[in-house]
Amino acid sequence: MDHAPTITGRRIRVRGLVQGVGFRPHVWRVARDLGLSGWVANDGDGVDIAVWGDGPALDAFAARLVDDAPPLARVTAVASAPADGPPPAGPFVIVASHGGAVRTGIVPDAATCPACAAEIRDAGQRRHGYAFTNCTHCGPRLTIAGAIPWDRARTAMAAFPMCDACAAEYADPADRRFHAQPIACPDCGPRLWLEGADADPSADPIAATADLLAAGRIVAVKGLGGFHLACDGLDAEAVAMLRARKRRDAKPFALMAPLAVVQAYAQVSPAARAALTSPAAPIVLLPPRADAPVLPPALAPDQDHWGWMLPYTPLHHLLCDAFAARGGRVLVMTSGNLSDEPQVTDNDAARAGLTAIADALLLHDRPIWNRLDDSVVALDDTGAVMPIRRARGYAPAPLPVAVPGAADWPATLAMGGELKATFCLLRDGAAVVSQHIGDLEKAEALADYRAMLTLYRDLHQFVPAVIAVDAHEAYLSTTLGQALAEETGARLIRVGHHHAHMVAAMVDAACPAAMADAAVTQAVDWDAPTLGVLLDGLGMGDDGTLWGGEILLGGLDGAARVGRFAPVPLLGGSAAMRQPWRNLVAHLHAAFGADWQAQAAPVAAHLPDAARLSMAQAMLDSGTNCPPCSSAGRLFDAAAAALGLYPAEISHEAQAAMALEALARPFAAEEHAYQVEITGDPLPTIGWAPLWRALLGDVAAGVAPGRIAARFHHGVAAAVAQAVARAMADHALPPGTQVALSGGVMQNRVLVPVLRQMLGAMGLRVLAHGQVPANDGGLALGQAVIAAHLAHTT
User: Fold this and answer.
1) pLDDT tens across 740-758, in order?
2) How many other CB atoms sit within 10 Å of the CB of residue 236?
3) Where is the catalytic site (predicted)?
């Protein structure tokens, strides 16, 4: 005898990036397909589901929620409990959002999906040629967000009431635009226009812009998270004009082109193609093809990689298409600002600030509520993504913190550093790292930092119990954190700069991938002592001096210095970060003492005049404005200056070191490494005198500069490996010990592969970054984890 199935109910809570990605229509479709009843809603905690049916159907429903989730969704947790009451009458429905404490996030802005890209090129579609086409799988998110839950009324699209056709798509669960909050069309959505260059208001603004670009003009283009300055990337005169007007002497320009064009100019590996075509659509640093047409050198002076990105909004797709129809191939798409200032986001600000650079402005009336730079990534020697700047496409995706007990830690806000500033909100075992904001010494970046901090706290209704700051008292992020702790009553915890770098690499390595193109998760033993190899510019050390080339031993609870680069005077203080010759003089003086000028004869052409050298000598003799600093970054600057790479002045951070890396790359297989000396007890210290003696000898002997640069890189790697071996012996560390690599110098793709190979040969297990940058852009993540753990355990 057949029995009717037993109908039961379940209340299911789904957390993660599940708003604004089509998750509710996904739930609706699965439920209807399985014949279930109930409802689904967004709220501050994610997605709330009440569902009734028989047991097997409910089990299938729960499995398909995750297995068949929309492409932009990132489910971090699913909780289920019995639902009270009888099943509701009628089919499964989507109901209005309701409140509750915010625990969900906003998905990152996503590149145009294939369906929307095809739609804007189809003359039979009503969105043909429409620059603001999007759906639940693509389009603006953080850039237009004002509050959670993610609903149109809380976004910059609230100013554009939907027409009947869009409203019908929005209300149809079978449509890919069902509850797509930024939905728009030519009848009801944002509009585009061109100003300047005697623009004809009746002309197609895309076509008119393409005409200007093809004629060698510069156009400011309002994009997704800010303005770009665009010109023909193959027109050397246009590129030179853009550099002159923007006052950007040498920092590389980003390039935009369709994938087929990128592949004609650059070496695009499968991993690079995956990064380029991912929803994040970052700028990817790629080497040129050997048979590629020559690009104007001024695009990236002294570099052997170019930053390429694909068109990632409908506007970019349409502009690239129109430019190609006029014979164009490659567009420069650099940030719309003067050098070192944040991107312009507002139309009036563009009219005031960009008209001295651009011949015309391509504008639209969709507000950019939140500035968002393009992300930049490279590929390491294993083919894994190496973040350089984490912004559009990645932020603000939460990163699961795979540390036992992290879900119980107190809500912690970490303020990050001074350069490449980001901050981090950590709660419930997940870390939300803000987008790259910039250098806080710039007033505009500091204002942006304050605004974003307010936004993120509001979005997440985040009240910190703990605030983590860098140990450097003078950092603006530190002073802001101190003030906020006094205001909120939160516990203030100071975290050592290099300890934060170390833990950031460990957390990053253990973090389950938040984006499809992120690095593979590595196992991390949180109970075992870990070595940290931290190479960067500088940061405040535990002893009150400036560190920058360090080996630490420890873990979450703390870390002790077990090796270091020899401290060298920072000649002129902050001036040494802009003028590489100062670092060369300081290193030669440290290596050879009073005889340094005689030893420097092979590189004398790269040193300043006698008067400035006399001044430098007096400063070194007296110690005036010459704080000792074990910086790895300044060592690389010194070597670059010795080879004539920007010895007098750099125009952007790491310019000389980047040129040195590019110079060394063709000789990366060089087997010779300059030697160093390791002295000191109990603190092993790497001394550079033997390296400098050999380097100067090679310069005098006429050895190719690229070979010298490669020998320098190999020498630094060997020195670090020797110091690590000494630390292992001194502290009886077993084979298989973890070593975490972090700091800005760990983005050097000549140094790191050599060092990784050496450490692997020693039986060490290398942990590296894959989702936040090794530079100070990842600092806040390490600060947050250390401070939250400390607050929980003390």
Assistant:
1) 999 999 999 999 999 999 9
2) 15
3) 24, 42
